[in-house]
Amino acid sequence: MVDSGGDLAPTALGELMPWAVRGIRTGRSWVLGADPEVLEERWRRLAAAAPAQRAELFELSRSRTPDSAVAALPGLGGKATTRRLSREPGPRPPLVRVRHRPLDRAWLLADHRLLDQARPELWRAAGPQQRYLLVQPLAAAAASGSSAPTTTVAAELPVDQRVTVHPLHRRPEGDEPNLAPGLLRCLTRTLAVKVTPIDVLAWTAALTARPDAPRRADGSPLVPLPRSAATWAEGLALGHRLLELHTFARPGLRLPDGRRTFIRQAVDRQPAGLDYDAETETLLLGEGRLAPVAPAAGESPALREWFAERTAFRTAPSGTLQALGLTSWPQRAGTELIELAATLAHLAELRPAQDALARDGGPWLGREELTSAGVLPVLPAARRPASVLGSLDEGPEGQYALL
After folding, report:
1. Exposure b/e, 275-308, CB count within 10 A at least 16 = b
2. Alpha carbon distance 115, 77 (integer Å)
């Protein structure tokens, strides 16, 4: 379905959450990893290397070299130096939890000197209340198959330059929602219930966090808005459940049928591969065994991508920082894998309800009504990040800009 521009055409995500930016682009894979201790060792080797070797280990790009002069990343409280890396590596940068794949978390060496496109505007708006709606590109969605959701929600900064990021809030305090002006007022009046920013995010996830959700020609997912309070309540219950799952807010999650997955046989070495036995509902990692694992999870490409990220160092060129990795399989990896498998099973169980909501949830608000309410068209200022924030950003070589 493509937005035809008529009154009955659904609104697009870019009209409801107008400020959007691409995800962070690292430019070098070694700054990202599943294991904090590996990143610490990579940094130690880079900082201890002679200048010529440091440049080689760094992996130069057009955007970054060890001689690049850049400002500090906002929001880190002065924990990282802004001196040129070739001159003064400084202490190890902070390790920040990030979202790398749609449902995969990793750690990042948070240093602007190491990142090709760090998206400082995202760092400025990061905070404990922040949530990010991530839109997968059309090409990536087609390549990964029909099981891949169009959008996912993350609580961590997104490190993937392919995704389009719609933050829920424009400021770190969470007191300025990234929503079209007048949207909350319009929905509250129409539905006769108080509507909050997180409710809008939950509703949006219920409609778009599913495979093959309709989009506009520019790739922005379509988000119809209901007239019925009952439909809204149904969508919110579904959407808030999705937010919990996407942000891993419930550790120790059981399978939908109440069973719990256990490590039946420990993984004591780096497994050569990952496989799934559907007959016994067992996930196979070398000699390791995890069961029960629901088929919706065991056969999901997301598990293969998760595993590939944690074993990619084995195929990296010798002598590079990316080739540094753990020689044994960490216990936390098994815990994370169980958590991911349970999450995938629950998401699969919710998809029929999502499809039914999109199919039967109408009638929807028309564009003419949203225009009359002042929601549409979106003002240009709403598409830009917040212009005034409460802290100064340190510039290159420790200087501050004069404002």
Report:
1. ebeeeebbbbbbebbbbbbbebbbebebbeebbe
2. 18
Cα distance from N-terminal residue to C-terminal residue, the chain: 47
pTM confidence score: 0.93
pLDDT tens digits, residue range 152-194? 999 999 999 999 999 999 999 998 999 999 999 999 999 999 9
Dump pLDDT digits (tens) for 209-252: 999 899 999 999 999 999 999 999 999 999 999 999 999 999 88
CA angle at 309 for the pair 100 and 136, rounded to the nearest 5°: 40
**CA count, 13 A, side-chain hemisphere, 336:** 17
CA distance 297 to 41: 33
Q: What is the DSSP string of 211-233?
A: BT--B-TTSPBEE--BS-HHHHH
The answer to whether 9 touches 370, Cβ cutoff 8 Å, is no
Q: Tokens in use for 227?
A: 């007239």
Could you report the per-residue pLDDT of 68-110, keeping only the tens digit for each?
A: 999 999 988 767 788 999 998 999 999 999 999 999 999 999 9
Sheet holding 32-33: strands in order across? 32-33, 104-109, 95-101, 157-158
Could you give the 3-state DSSP secondary structure of residue 334?
A: helix
Residue 296 and residue 298: Cα distance in Å, rounded? 6
Which tokens sit at 350? 């919710």
Written as six digits, the tokens of 161 are 């330059």
Q: Residue 53 in contact with residue 36, Cβ under 8 Å?
A: no
